[in-house]
Specification:
The protein is α+β, with helices and mostly antiparallel strands. 24% of the residues lie in helices and 28% in strands. It has helices at residues 58-64, 101-121, 125-128, and strands spanning 9-13, 22-29, 39-47, 68-75, 79-85. The model has no long low-confidence stretch (mean pLDDT 88).
Length: 133
């Protein structure tokens, strides 16, 4: 499993803290001696944007359009791929198998700005909607 888990594919996390959250695949790693399973690095939405109405002011709308992202390496058995893709380009460190805390913070902030920009453009609406199940 895993050849179709290419960059940009939208997946749903099935296990752990982010179970039931949507994420997009950033990179894919094969198993190695240190980590004996295939894994994908994903950037996802921990807290989706909230509903906005016409009566709200600009400040409140900007606050409600905020997205809280997460970046995580996940076993490929613990994600469910969907038919959707997102064509976002994030600055992923060049094939770093283990992210440092500074690199992870930078990647999270890049993901946040990219997700918020895409949400405000009105593209990929399914990706930003809360998953109902």
């Amino acid at each position: 499993m895993g050849r179709f888990l290419k960059q940009g594919r939208v997946v749903i996390c099935l296990q752990g803290r982010y179970a039931g959250r949507k994420a997009m695949v950033l990179d894919r790693y094969d198993s190695s001696a240190k980590v004996p399973f295939e894994r994908v690095r994903v950037a996802g939405i921990e807290r989706p944007p909230r509903k906005v109405t016409k009566r709200m002011g600009k400040k409140k709308i900007n606050r409600r359009c905020r997205i809280k992202p997460f970046v995580k390496d996940i076993n490929t058995n613990h994600v469910m791929p969907t038919r959707y893709t997102v064509d976002l380009q994030l600055n992923v460190p060049v094939k770093k198998k283990i992210l440092t805390t500074e690199a992870k913070k930078k990647l999270k902030s890049d993901a946040r700005t990219a997700f918020e920009d895409r949400y405000k453009q009105g593209k990929n609406k399914w990706f930003f909607a809360k998953l109902r199940f």
